[in-house]
Design brief:
CATH class of one domain: Alpha Beta
Largest sheet: 10 strands, mixed
Oligomer: single chain
Helix content: 25-40%
Radius of gyration: 21 Å
Distance between the termini: 41 Å
Bound molecules: S-adenosylmethionine
Order of helices and strands: HHHEHEHEEEEHEHHEEHHEH
InterPro entries: SAM-dependent_MTases_sf
Number of helices: 11
Protein name: Class I SAM-dependent methyltransferase
């Protein structure tokens, strides 16, 4: 699981909807003073590292990574300090005696044109006028929490739920988010799965496999939905939230594509590609689909277990020969409660 979460970092980098991310960054930086962020289902901490490396944070941020999987949080504790250092931050651990575990403090100071960082994510519209030189400092304090996402009692300015809301019961999740978010706080829910699973090259059994895989998400798996992205948009409206931005963030996983590790400075940080990681992601996806199909009673599937195994064999052979590619449809959503926006809360 941890290796998969690390491997999908660059797949997510490429997929994230930049317009929704820009709006999220604007919402964070518009707030006065330090900003508190809680990330639910944070995995190994890749979103925190990405937001820090891409300069999406205001000057002072407290960031709580929450995951119920102890091993994910242990891996996040190992990875995040090194990855923040790679992004130019100085890091140290601070032992707060009343805290559940040490806090990581990461600081980055940089001087540049208009105070913009070297490795900053490119904007849709770049300012090209005369540059002024400024120095800015960003300080992020990070806490690592092993907990069920819906048992968090802390208040936050922003909640991030990346590749998470498709795994849980949405009404329960929204109810919990409403108690965690401060007035005017925002929910950023990128990479929310929204009902599309496809492979290249196509296979005659794909359509039935996809239908059964999504049926497993909807009816057999404990929590979650195969159409969570659009269901999230619907439930936000029902519960009086305002959707500030929404857009597609489809995954396109291509192990055979040429490596582009970002060592070359002309490569945008969000465009990196590593064949070994893409391959690992595909292996995990095939394994997940196979496990899901195995849990569906054989009598109810339109294919036999032999045909299912043959489909998997063909997919694994394509992976071995470097011809397999994968596409998944996701949505990125940024929202806050409408009643708060209109001052009626
Ligand atoms: C698909 S992974 C996404 C991880 C991370 N957000 C990312 O995009 O890399 C979903 C994560 O949610 C965590 N998770 C699932 N249900 C949870 C719950 N009820 N409370 C806390 N974490 C949960 C899993 O352990 C896993 O790390």
């Amino acid at each position: 699981m941890q290796a998969y979460l690390e491997a999908k970092h660059t797949v997510d980098d490429r997929a994230l909807n930049r317009r929704v991310l820009d709006e999220f960054e604007a919402a964070l930086t518009a707030r006065d003073g330090p900003v508190s962020v809680v990330e639910l289902g944070a995995g190994v901490g890749t979103m925190l590292v990405r937001l820090a490396a891409w300069d999406c944070f205001p000057a002072r941020v407290s960031y709580r990574l929450v995951d119920h999987d102890e091993e994910n949080i242990a891996r996040a504790r190992d990875l995040v300090p090194d990855q923040l250092e790679d992004a130019g931050y100085s890091v140290h651990w601070r032992d707060d005696h009343d805290a559940e575990s040490p806090t990581l403090v990461a600081t980055r100071e940089f001087t540049g044109d208009d105070g913009r960082a070297q490795n900053e994510r490119p904007r849709l519209l770049e300012y090209t006028g005369p540059a002024t030189t400024t120095t800015t400092t960003t300080t992020i304090t990070v806490t690592f929490t092993i907990s069920d996402a819906f048992e968090i009692e802390e208040q936050a300015d922003a909640v991030i739920a990346a590749a998470f809301l498709d795994l849980v019961d949405l009404p329960t999740a929204l109810e919990s988010l409403e108690s965690v978010l401060d007035p005017d706080g925002v929910l950023y829910a990128p990479i929310t799965f929204d009902g599309g699973t496809g492979f290249v090259p196509t296979d005659p059994l794909d359509r039935d496999i996809e239908r059964c895989y999504h049926h497993h998400m909807d009816e057999i798996r404990d929590g979650g939905s195969s159409r969570a992205g659009r269901e999230l948009l619907a439930i936000l409206r029902q519960r009086d939230w305002e959707t500030l931005a929404a857009g597609g963030s489809d995954w396109v996983v291509r192990p055979a594509c040429a490596d582009n590790t970002g060592d070359d400075e002309t490569v945008n940080p969000g465009d990196t590609h590593d064949s070994a990681s893409e391959r690992l992601v595909l292996e995990y996806v095939l394994h997940t689909i196979d496990d899901a199909l195995t849990e569906i009673p054989a009598a109810t599937t339109p294919f036999s277990t032999v045909e299912q195994q043959q489909w998997l064999d063909r997919r694994q052979a394509a992976l071995e020969s470097g011809t397999l590619e994968f596409v998944a449809h996701n949505l990125d959503v940024l929202a806050r409660r409408e009643s708060v926006v209109n001052g009626q809360s």
